[in-house]
Amino acid sequence: MRTLDVKLLRDLRRLAPQVAAIAMLGAIGVCVGVMANNALKAVQVAEDRFYADTRFADVFGGAVRAPKALTAKLAAIEGVVAVDARASGVGLMPVPGLDRPAHVTLVALPDDDARSLDRFKLLAGRMPARPDEAVALKAFVDAAHVPLGQRLGAVIAGREVGLTIVGAGISPEYVYSPSETLLPDDAHQAVLWARRATVEGASGEVGAFAKVALKLARGAPAAAVVPQVDRLLAPYGAAPTVARADQISDKFITDALRRLRILALILPPIFLAVAAALTHMVTARLVETEREQIGLLKAFGFSHAEVAVPYLKLAAIIGLVGAVAGGLAGAGLAVALTGLYAQYFRFPVFAAQFNWAVFAVTSLIAIGATLAGASLAARRAASLAPAVAMRPPSPPSYRRGRLELPRLGRRLDHPTRMILRRIERFPAKAGLTAAGFAVSLALLVCTQFLEDALDRVVDSAFYRTQRWSAQLTFAHLRDIRAIAETRRLPGVVAAEPVRDSGAWAEGPRGRKQVALEGIDPDARLVRPLDGSGRPIPLEGAGVIVSRALAERLGLRAGNGVDLDVLEGRRPHLYLPITALADDYSGLIVYVDRGVLNRLMGDGDVASGANLIATADAAEKLNRRLVDLPQVSAASFRDATVANWRNITAKEFSVTVWFYLTFSGAIALGVAYNMGRITLAERARDLATLQVLGFTRGECAYILYGELAALALLALPFGVGLGTLFAQGLVQAFARDELRLPVAITPRTLAVSISAYGAAVGLGCLLLHRQLSRLDLVAVLKTRE
Amino acid sequence: MPPAASESAGQAALAFQVRGLTKIYPTAAGEVRALDGADLDVARAEILVLLGPSGSGKSTLLNILGGLDRATSGRVIFEGRDLVEASDAELTRYRRRSVGFVFQFFNLTPSLTARENVELITEIAEHPMDAAQALAMVGLADRLDHFPAELSGGQQQRVAVARAIAKRPEVLFCDEPTGSLDSASGVQVLEAIVHAAGETGATVMMVSHNAAIAEIADRVVRFRDGKVAEVTANARRKPAAEVRW
Lengths: 784, 245
Prior knowledge:
The complex is a heterodimer of chains A (784) and B (245). Chain A is α+β, with helices and mostly antiparallel strands and 784 residues long. Chain A starts with a helix and ends with a helix. Chain B has 245 residues and is an alpha/beta fold. Chain B has helices at 58-65, 88-98, 114-122, 131-137, 153-165, 183-200, and strands at 14-27, 30-43, 47-51, 73-78, 81-82, 99-102, 171-175, 203-207, 219-224, 227-233.
């Protein structure tokens, strides 16, 4: 081994804690990249395999009693290679052990499984052998604790049908099966598959179908097929036709993966940049202390490159250690994350993956980052002239600082002046340190804010805009007198009619499927809100459009919006927009129910009712609802929100620690490394002060005071940057259903700043060992 | 600190009483005896110059007497208390109250002016003199607001002397105070030390390689192999201004 390499190894050993702290940040960068990409690959592989196995369709349509003969016309559409039309019905189903009835979707099993699409994949039990047997979605069976062999009574379109659950499994259409409110609630979202005759009998659709799936030839554009399917189904229209990308379950999976991909793109560069900056500081400091040795080596004939290379090697080793550690940790975490996704998505075959290409690329980037960090120091080593290098640097020249305002200056003690003057004397170093701190705090803020933002969305959506405690959906449009009936249900103190429909909305920027919500102008249980939370009144035939939709389609208040209603005679409407609603309700158009009824050519009808029901009568109400044939679905706000909070609390309890640790690691790494550098630079100063009678605590103040001052200085910048990051995340995560507000609450600030303070404090604590080991005698004898 | 041994009773005029002082450094090659049972009495307000070749033990003695290092065995009695038995906190208090240091390499804080370097110490002292007064005593009344980088080596060392003397220490330790200065600057520093010590009544213990400096001392202590080899008294202290090397 060459002597320079021996020296490098000894330097490494001496700098081990600092090297480890920087390598840790590089490792986190690589780890997040590897973890996210491996988990993504695992989900994608499992998804592709599952979709292929079960022949997941490309286009999905719904209808009311569409004749089977229509399937031939659907099959004739160009690009369609298979059509699978089935009877289906929805209703309510009491489940033993559940406090309220589950929403049930009953789907017919295909006559010929081999040629069917969206196949049911059995995971437990057996397939139905008799008309009164059914298989169920495994997510529901597990969440509702339904044992195989359990007999359940579902009320579909007013007819009760008794079914024994003989098996459980999954279907590509229902990997994720949200409730009416789009929040997940597995226990109350039952999907059952039974023989065709059973379902046709229950839904009254003999010889007809209610849902149809189409498989397209490879490369056939779904966008061209969807309108043709829509046109054929129009006379029997119910739900709008969607391509796979808009299918609820697939869309949810795609969104979850997209969020993961965004994190994998955003987080690693931040960590690697901080690692590069710290590598720069450490190697620059090393070159400064080794000037005389560098000069000596050059005087003995070493080339410029030869003296510079060891610093690059040091940086490469830091990067390599980080890459390997990060790769291993990432692979491990990916297995854990894949396990979580496996629970979540329930694909039958879920195997952890290791993406070598991603590991190789992120490792190279990590090593590149630390090399880039050391490049300035290496160049400085190469450019030092032997004579200059062998002369010790002159003492840094200080001035009275501008930070010491004349009044304040007189009151400052000398240790504080030392701190301030050093910050002013080395602005680049102070700036880099503060920037590192700010980035750490920003990451903490922008990851903590998510929880608050979701909270605000739920508060706004379920307590301010939608103020009902229960929502009923009728199986068919009903006369307004039905509302009076619902008012007589047990515990109900108020009921308001709604008429909901689906529509395509069109604006200057495009076309989107939206919810058309018809409410009465004096409705109190649903109120569109403006930016400051005040209800906006409906005016005449004007509509109120959610801001999310307006921005997407380029709509403005005062303009009009084109609406193709996907119901009844499917009229085309052009209505004036009177206001925009800021209430996180997704893509929604509010319209006067009376106006909508008139435009649809209907009388005074409603598609459902919003209720206020007392909590103590909930059980009675639930029992009664199951017996009402005209009610096909019921949602209960408190149960929905409680369930959602439960799920997010579980999710957040894991991710919050993950983010707190990773983001805090930056503050820790910066505090420790910059502290070590400061300590090395000031060891003589501090030892002198100790010899002159200063206590260790007083010396510690000079060291930690500087870090604390910079950490405080970084505070407003960190919060500001965090808010910017949060806005970026909101943009990146924006979905049709959900637009998060950038809500930096006191809780977010309290948690982030506490974690930040703790991380900086921990960095100082690690330094304390070095500070207490200052060798008073040795430091005084040698000149640096 | 435990009470001093009875033999020190009645010797109130002593600054230090050193008995059997031994310092052993364990090294890879075995033990090194930096001090090997040194005995010495130091009178109050005297100027003592410690001479000897490298490794003879003079700096080790200075470090132990200054409260920077600990002896392996033996006793150092200062004001009736044994420094060898003192705790870290007691040594810090001792350095803070009773001791002034002048180092070979000045060790000024570069971010503080001459006056502030002195004030840094007077802030923690019990009966300090004014920083400006201390600097005037070493002939730097016109350099109060200069930063170290703006002063010559000799001037920096005189600031260090002012810093050491400003808290009115009982003992002033000087470790090669002229070691990194040219002769003319060195003489100015020596003058400053002698003058300031005279003004405050401090005992001065000065380590040096430079035999010429011995002429300014009341007594000269020569070290060899970790022991006090010889103590000689100068009949007359030569004024620092007359010393040449």
